[in-house]
Amino acid sequence: MAETQIEWTDATWNPVAGCSIMSAGCTNCYAMEMARRLEAMRVDKYSGLTRQSGNRTVWTGLVREDRDALAIPTKWRKSRKIFVNSMSDLFHDAVSDDFILEVWDVMRDTPHHHYQILTKRPERMASILNETIGEVLPNVWLGTSVEDKAVAHRVEILRQVPAAVRFISFEPLIGSVGSIDLSGIHWAIVGGESGRSARPIKEEWIDEIHAQCNRHRTKFFFKQWGTWGEDNKKRSKKANGRMYRGKAWNDMPEAPLAL
Distance between CA 103 and CA 71 in Å, rounded? Predict the structure, then answer.
């Protein structure tokens, strides 16, 4: 679970496994199906994390802390951008404060890496960062997911989080987020949903976010159209590509490493 094809990172690191549905953006989460496959491959870490609901794979709500995985980034000598918990949420209620602090210790001790932490639970992130951790690591980027206007309030909570880089993943973008305020947000990732049950993305929803990025000088990264293309037709995500307004948008935030 190291190398990845996710366009905005280099590797994944999963000291936590398992999650639970939080909002509409979770409905077709790729991690649920991936966890099912890993369990079928007899990877003990993922045993019992999912169940079948009709023809869908869904989380059982079981979350597992994996201390054996904590040391993995210390073995990577080359600097990498590392997506933390692509198969879970570090700030899930079932993850203990003590374990989060252990993850923080690893990130502090490996300043040659950039760590990207994404949560749908920014309230807990803000609480722990402000009340327990109380430090800003220059190599740790903290973000939240916003899939539509119903969860746009997460942005305001993210602004309360002390971080070298704050970012938002607007993926899967399944609805308008309106005139969202991106002040204090350094980076925005936008992408459509993929998979057989993918919900469409509309260009005007992307336009709204792109306009706010320009207004607040937020770096803009367009990840993919997904299953539904720019022309609103369904095809493979590879065929639909990741060009928006005739251009590939790969902007990244600038954050110094504490070498």
Answer: 9
